[in-house]
Design goal:
With about 325 residues, this protein is an alpha/beta fold. It has helices at about 20-35, 50-55, 85-90, 100-115, 130-135, 150-155, 175-185, 200-210, 230-240, 275-285, 310-320, and strands at about 5-10, 40, 60, 75, 95-100, 120-125, 145, 165, 220, 245, 265-270, 290-295. The protein is about 40% helix and about 15% strand.
Amino acid sequence: MAAMVRRVLLASPRGYCAGVERAVETVELALEHFGAPIYVRKQIVHNAHVVRDLEERGAVFVDSEEEAPEGSTIVFSAHGVAPRVHERAAARSLNTIDATCPLVTKVHVQARRYADAGYTVVLIGHAGHEEVEGTMGEAPESTVLVESVEDAERLDFPAAAKVAYITQTTLSVDETSEIIGVLRRRFPDIHAPKKEDICYATSNRQWAVKELLPEIDLLLVIGSRNSSNSNRLVETARAGGVAAHLIDDESEIEDAWLEGVENVGVTSGASAPEKLVERVCDWFRARGVGEIEAFRMVEEDVLFRLPIELRRELALADAQD
């Protein structure tokens, strides 16, 4: 069936965001500096290939900081952790390196500030996602999770309640706007972040998919099943009337998807390395598709500094050399 495909268009921007790049580099540099093993709480980013690559270099992924041996080095993932995680790590004398994305940290700070000011905090996000668990941990007694328009309609607060909302950083822009619309209608005095919480990379990748849709018959999104932003890209395409599938790599492409398809779009979630895009392109080249090109080119120039704990360690090592 791939022989019917005439053209493959690559969305731009796609792939690694600044927060993911920072988190992966943090583990790599920690392995170089401290040596293996380096423990990592949860997946450093939600991509199976990245996790396997780091495991091969000596990273050990654990579900809880309590699984890391006392006194060992542990990296907290890009998704952020609740304050109690820091407390438990300190009690075990762990050398912690916090690779939380700065944009997630911003949401944590907002949650604390709203709660300290007496607000009920409505967190728009997905239950069970690590980012949501970490954010709710900042003010669990003051935070209410809303996952849908229906949840927002069901909220019931006292008339005198002060209400504010924050959001997970990797949500659907359109779906979140609908939920915010309900919150604003029901609670006209609701406080909002000065700048939206959905991160630049999530917004940009959804925008790029929307721009691509009129040109394609099918979209392949490279990303792991537990990647929130990758799943949102699939939803964005389907909402625009284009068939879309989430794949970890080229081995998951099914010939049946390509039946009657001439133009295929390819994008990747913010935690998927570019080498996976190249592998998908090679899969199509091997099946006779010669026209593979970028659909517009958009550069992202956002950079985040490495975690302060790691910068201090590396600076100290440089000073001793």
